[in-house]
Amino acid sequence: MKSPARPDAGSPLEAVVALPMGPRDGKPRLRGLTMVIDKGLGLAQTRDLMEVAGDYIDFVKLAFGTALLYPPALLAEKVRIIRSAGVEVYPGGTLLEAAVHQGAAREFLAAAAQAGFTAIEVSEGTIDLAPAVRRDLIRRAVDMGFRVLTEVGKKDPARPLVPEQVWEQVAADRTQGAFKVIIEGRDAGHSVGIYDEAGAIRESLFTALVAGLDCLDDILWEAPRTSQQQALLLRLGPGVNFGNVQPQDVVTLEALRVGLRGDTLRQCAAGGASPAAGWRATAREQGPISGPRAGTWGAGGKSVARTKEFLGSCGKGNRCTGDCRKPTAGKPTGTGEGGTAGAPVQGQPEIARRREVQAMGTVAATGQVRLEAPSVEAREAEVQEKFLRLLATDRSSPEFLQLYREVDAALEELVGQEETVDR
């Protein structure tokens, strides 16, 4: 099929070939962010990077505490080059942690502003921050005009992520004004965060995290390896936010986002249309995942994993309104603590509900249910539809418990059938 010409094309190629997954949002973006980790680029390299890929980069992080090691004049010029390309720039969170440890957090923020940094990372990768200290740092940085990124997770493999803690910290940081919350992955991309020792995604942990997050647009996943970027993008869609992208991988990542790499072009070609629109929809708008799109993007679980994108990423701007998680009109909403019957439950996310969805969703969304028989595939599609309805249903309603039991029993049945097929 011939691609439509682009009237705003800047080159002969652009006039002929359309982006398979459609054009990306322009800057400043709220989703599909790319944060580059800079571990010591010189001025010439920085200029080259901004010239070639500046349109695709949203943040540059001067890694670790390296901002302190540049000669002042060089640092100032480096910051100027990055900012002139319309890219935010900030020092690594380790440098703020060092300042906090030395009792100089306020002075550090003032010095960062003087140095021309436009963003700040508040993290606890190495040290522990008291909740009040973390809140104060976020608020103070926001009040000073910084774009604040916070981070959850430790750099120590012996201290893994705990989903409930992540959910609560993300909600708390966003309430204080954090723009995005980073999931720790380190520059190495293994043994911490959602990655195992080989750098592969820990499926059960990842699914548990996604099952409890209010809005996936709030999250920026550190993914320093191209294999990790591909894996997360295929699960969460081209609007996923990435951090710790290596400078040499920026254009490659952008090609993946718009369907100009084999991995995503293949899906567009197989499905006959761009799946990007489906990624943006909510479960209520999109309905059950079935038909060509479900088969295209991975039968046996990957479609179910993406339901969290449908539910979480409302596409309503900087802050998710939560509309995609509110009960529909006419459904019972339960009684909140100290509330009245029929009123929506307010306050912190319902951790108990999320644990139940997590327990069920871990099996469904990790791609463990992979079956070939047509009758089994039909049953799987039915389960996926119920799973979507479950995630969009108020936990206090009778329908939630009934749906939960039905989906749980169906998954047990499907897993048993899969084992039979495998044998």
Q: Topology, pairings included?
A:
Layout: H1 12-16, E1 34-38, H2 43-53, E2 59-62, H3 72-84, E3 88-91, H4 93-101, H5 105-114, E4 119-122, H6 131-143, E5 147-152, H7 163-176, E6 180-183, H8 203-212, E7 219-222, H9 226-236, E8 241-245, H10 250-258, H11 262-271, H12 276-280, H13 283-286, H14 291-296, H15 302-312, H16 351-365, H17 374-391, H18 398-422
Parallel strand pairs: 1-2, 1-8, 2-3, 4-5, 5-6, 6-7, 7-8
Helix pairs in contact: 2-3, 4-5, 7-8, 8-16, 9-10, 15-17, 16-18, 17-18
How is this structure best summarized?
This protein is of the alpha/beta class.
List keywords for this structure.
8 strands; alpha/beta; TIM Barrel; disordered N terminus; 423 residues
Mean pLDDT: 76
What share of the residues does DSSP label as strand, in percent? Answer: 5-15%
Tell me the Rg in angstroms. Answer: 22 Å
CATH topology annotation of the largest domain: TIM Barrel
Order of helices and strands: HEHEHEHHEHEHEHEHEHHHHHHHHH
Spatial gap, N to C terminus: 43 Å
Main sheet overview:
8 strands, parallel
Order of neighbouring strands in the sheet with most strands: 3-2-1-8-7-6-5-4
- Name the CATH superfamily classification of the largest domain: Aldolase class I
For the record, the CATH class of the largest domain is Alpha Beta
Number of strands: 8
Structure characterization notes:
- The chain is built from 18 helices and eight strands.
- The protein is α/β, with parallel strands linked by helices and 423 residues long.
- It is 47% helix and 9% strand.
- Strands 3-2-1-8-7-6-5-4 form an eight-stranded parallel beta sheet.
- Residues 1-7 and 272-374 have low confidence and may be disordered.
